[in-house]
Amino acid sequence: MSQDTLSFSVSIRDRVSATGIESENDNIVNVPITIIVLDENDNPPEFQNVPYETEVLENAAPGTTIFDGILVTDRDTVGENLDVACIPQRQNPDACSKFAVEVTESQQDRLTAAVVLQEPLDYNDRMIYQILLDASDGLFNASAGLEIHVRDVQNSPPIFQGSLAAVINEDSPIGTLVMTIHARDGDRGQPRKIVYELVTNPMDYFLLDKHTGELRTAKPLDKEALPDDTGLIILTVKAREVVDGVPGNDNLTVATTQASITIRDVNDSPPMFNKTEYFVSLTENTAPGTPLPLEITVRDPDVGENAEFALRLNDVSNVFDVEPRLVTGSSQISIRVANGTLDYENPNQRKFIVLLIAEETKTNPRLSSTATLTVSITDANDNRPTFEQDSYSTSVSETAHAGHLITTITAKDLDSGPFGDQGIRYSLSGTGSELFQVDALTGAISVAACPPTDTPDTTIRQQRRRRRRRQIPTLSDLQRDYGGDLNRLNASASGGVEYMTYRIVNSGETSNEFHDVNVIASPTIASLGWTADALPAETTTAGTMPTTSSTAGPDDTDGLPTTVRIGPPLQTNDIHYPTVAPPVATSTGTVAGPGRAPCLDFETQSVYYLSYRATDDDGRGQTSVVSVRISLLDANDSPPVCESPLYRASVDEGATVFEPPLIIRARDPDVVSEINYRIIGNEAVTRHFEIDKRTGQLTISKTVALDVNHLMSENVFFGVEATDGLHTTLCNVNITIRDVNNHAPQFARENYLTSIEENFPIGTKVERLEAIDLDTGINAEIRYRIQQGSFDDFSIDNRTGVVSIARKLDYDRRNTYQMEIVASDLGTPSLSGTTMLTVSIINSNDKAPYFTPTTQRAEVSEDAAIGTLVHTLVAVDPDVASSESLDYAATEPITAVDKNGKEVGEMEDFKDLFMIDRSGKVFVNRRLQRDSFAVIRITVLVTDTTAPSIQQGEGLLIITITDVNEEPPKIPSA
Predict the structure, then answer these.
(1) pLDDT, tens digit, for every residue of 528-562?
(2) How do 855-861 and 952-962 pair as beta strands?
(3) Mind giving me the DSSP string for 696-761?
(4) Residue 294 belongs to a domain with what CATH number?
(5) Which UniProt keywords apply (predicted)?
(6) What's the half-sphere exposure (Cβ side, CA atoms, 13 Å) at 425?
(7) Contact by Cβ (8 Å): 611, 428
(8) Buried/exposed 938-964: b ≥16 CB within 10 Å, e otherwise
(9) Helices in 232-368 by DSSP H: which ranges?
(10) Residue 910 region by backbone torsions, left for phi larger than 0, else alpha for psi between -120 and 50, else beta
(11) What separation in angstroms does the CA of 965 have from each of 401, 861, 862, 864, 913?
């Protein structure tokens, strides 16, 4: 706005001539008019003193003001205060985070600001930043650029460049260039010169030019003198920046590195033996291929092709051979008897003299050395007994008695006397050899007598033997598989645990009697066979531990209870065992009869692989060994045995097959038996699982789906009966059903309704939503979230489902919320359910009324009568339903402008020209005089009379008094 008042004059002419032609006699009236121009925000802000450009050192600290010359002006005097901001740009994405624009002065028509460093700078990363500045007056915008140049500061040490590894021959002359070391200043703005020095120089082999970085040899090199056989030398090199003509000595001007130099070998040493002469004695029966007991080594200190050499023997007899034939560097040497048979009786074979030669193969000249080997031959028993066959096989019934002849095996010896046949003695060794005996002179093999059975050790062995043959659980098995707390298992019976009773019927050893073992869901079957004569007298009651037998061995810490009763049995499985023959009395005492432990037993071991020895010189000479295979002929006397004490498998809920396949296998040592399988369990087990009676493969029934909720347990225990038609055993099965996330969370209601007052504080609980998930474990853990509809005014606790106020509510902004709440489980993949929560906001009288528009205008004729309605004020209160709650009034300041646009002083009487009643109506209160008061400006108030505290709004009423043509034109007198 260039001026706020426009003044001009209007002329009125009446023509007195009858012809209507303008003449000097016409009457003319001149009327001056003044127009007051009110300012509006119609000009954009303007940056002054552009373009902007500045510099900053790269080590400037964050918080430093780097530019304070930003000036923005606006030709308007109304509108919002000016503001300026940094606008991110694609080519300078981090400029607005590195630098901040801070306003130092802000008015409607003027703004000053400065740019402050926020983050450290690095000249090597970026040298120039360009910032786009945006100025705004609330309606219009203007932009300008600021270019910031980063000045380099010397704060980076030297950087080594190029390879720092080299290879040089050990015969290189002094002064040979090995490598050139090069480093540059890490600061690229004004790089400094670099000087070099050697920090470590092993053997003082090298010199380094401090200016050029050239590394040269300082004296003759010798690879063999180095402690490292590879010829590797590590040098430490330091690079220093030259600061004001002096090499620096701090971390910002010095860098250190290592250079590796490999000295290449030159052939200057022959291969050498550790001795020049070797002596050894051999017996005449030394076999071909036997190495001589000598410590012979050879070494060439050179490397590479210079250290490759060949070994050979100068041996006219061709009896010996050397290994290896080719060597690189060094090696242990083995000399063996190669060809022919040594014979002490032949005078020409009592001593051998052999020359050992080592000669290089790839050098010129080929360097070599020699050593002498003297071998003396001594007499020995050089023939060992020989058998007609390499191995022997025979068989015997497992029921054969002691002394029963199995077979006779003899050997021959070419020597004579005690060294020959007369001195041969026979023996048998190997696992199970104690069950057989051999005549040392004749070689006859027979069944051995069993040890007496009246010793405690033998009784324990018999019990263990029976346990290996009959698979019934011991108390220690129950304690091991079920944590040792039988009472805990009994107490958990209500949780869907199945019970099973095993009844062991022992027939033949005493009068027929049975012993019940009631266990939870078929525990792990251990190796145990219970007999009446092995049972202790003590018994146990329900839920208690049995006493321990005093005759238990080291691995039988449990007793053998008559009854272990854990809970009420649901079913009984009888396991019958055949009659066992009574003990047999022999001359050595009461022993186990044929086939009883620990004698021959096909089920315990059907084949014995033994070593049969023949030794000459009355058992003190040479020995020959052959293998003897003794096979036992089977008798059907053993029950099937489960290959595993407990079969375990895990399947997912709803699975139809086991992956991998689950096969229950029992083995029967009796080769003629055929095993059939069937499931032993309650209806829930047999309904969900099936078994192939021939193969034992366990499958999931196709008619019923696996469901943890229906089974009420994730673990299913049952037994599989394996029978060969005569004997029966139970194999235990534990199936773990892994819960699958197949149930989505569900809310109790599809819709929730609630209401809350708008002035409730943030954090107030609105509603608690809860969903349930029929899965288990992590699949049943639920997390809640608001999907939509909260407009960020509400939040939900993701674990408890409690919805609370997150931001201040405003009835006038939004009075109803319809939120979609989602409950998701933590399964994979996650499943979810939804519900709707409707929250109604109850209005509160918390907002002040306001005029609309804030500045209201009216016009009234100068001749308006007192009481004339000039204007009706308009105000709004969002919290009241009726305008009757609003009271209007005038207040200071009240100002006026005369017809010439000048402000009227306070002493003038104009403030009561108009009257405002409580309803907002504006009336003429006194006679109006436009010549004195052309524009009246009244400050008006509106008050909410229903508010609990004072709530008022302020506005401006501008009344323009229009002129009335109340004086006729006047004709000036002549």
Answers:
(1) 233 333 333 332 323 333 333 333 333 333 333 32
(2) parallel
(3) -EEEE-SSS---HHHHT-SEEEEEEEEE-SS-EEEEEEEEEEE-------EES-SEEEEEEETTPP
(4) 2.60.40.60
(5) Calcium, Cell adhesion, Cell membrane, Membrane, Receptor, Repeat, Signal, Transmembrane, Transmembrane helix
(6) 8
(7) yes
(8) bebbbbbeebeeebebebebbbebeee
(9) none
(10) alpha
(11) 158, 11, 10, 13, 21
- Predicted confidence band of residue 940 (pLDDT cuts 50, 70, 90): very high
- The tokens describing 115, both together, are 């740019």
For residues 603 and 724, give the distance between their C-alpha atoms in angstroms, rounded to a whole number.
14
Please, which contacts does 655-662 make with residues 24 or more away whose CB atoms are closer than 8 Å? 655/700, 655/706, 656/700, 656/702, 657/699, 657/700, 658/698, 658/699, 658/700, 661/697, 662/697, 662/698
Last residue within a domain, chosen from 822, 842, 862: 842
CA 959 to chain centre: 77
- Give whole-number Cα distances, 782 to 484, 689, 812, 819, in Å: 36, 33, 35, 18
Which of 153, 183, 209 is at the close of a domain?
153
Q: Residue 574 has which token pair?
A: 């009888």
- Nearest in space to 389 (alpha carbons), one of 629, 631, 626: 626
Neighbours of 641 (CB within 10 A): 21
- Is residue 57 domain-shared with residue 119, that is, in the same domain? yes
> Residues 582, 575: contact at Cβ < 8 Å?
no
Distance CA 153, CA 692 (A): 85
Q: Is residue 810 part of a domain?
A: yes
Number of domains forming the structure of the chain: 7
Could you give the CA distance from residue 335 to residue 280 in angstroms, rounded to a whole number?
11
Distance CA 539, CA 547 (A): 7
What element of type H or E holds 687?
A: helix 683-688
**Does 592 reside within a domain?**
no
Q: Which of 219, 142, 133 is nearest to 175 (CA)?
A: 219
Nearest to 731 by CA among 675, 683, 687: 675
Pair 13, 136 in one domain: yes
| pLDDT (tens digit per residue) in 342-388 | 776 677 777 888 999 998 888 888 888 999 999 988 767 777 899 99
| Residue-wise burial string across 602-640, b where 16 or more C-beta atoms lie within 10 A, e elsewhere | bbbebebebebbbbbbebebbbbebebebebebebbbbb
Backbone angles phi, psi at 476, to 5 degrees: -65, -30
* Euclidean distance between CA atoms 767 and 837, whole angstroms: 9
Residue 63 lies in a domain: yes
Q: Which residues pair with 447 in a beta bridge?
A: 436
Q: What is the pLDDT of residues 83-122, one digit of tens each?
A: 999 998 888 888 899 999 999 999 988 999 999 999 998 8
CA dihedral defined by 430, 431, 432, 437, rounded to 10 degrees?
A: 10
Rounded to the nearest 5 degrees, what angle is found at the Cα of 780, between the Cα atoms of 778 and 781? 65
pTM of structure? 0.33
CA distance 314 to 371: 10
Q: Say how far apart CA 924 and CA 914 lie, in whole Å.
A: 5
The pLDDT tens digits for 301-312 are 777 778 889 999
| Rounded Cα gap, residues 32 and 519, in angstroms | 121
Q: Which residues pair with 356 in a beta bridge?
A: 313, 371
Q: What is the pLDDT of residues 683-709, one digit of tens each?
A: 878 888 999 999 999 998 888 877 777
Which is it for strands 499-506 and 572-577: parallel, antiparallel or unpaired? Answer: parallel
Closest CA to 742 of 825, 856, 841: 825
List the structure tokens of 677: 């399988």
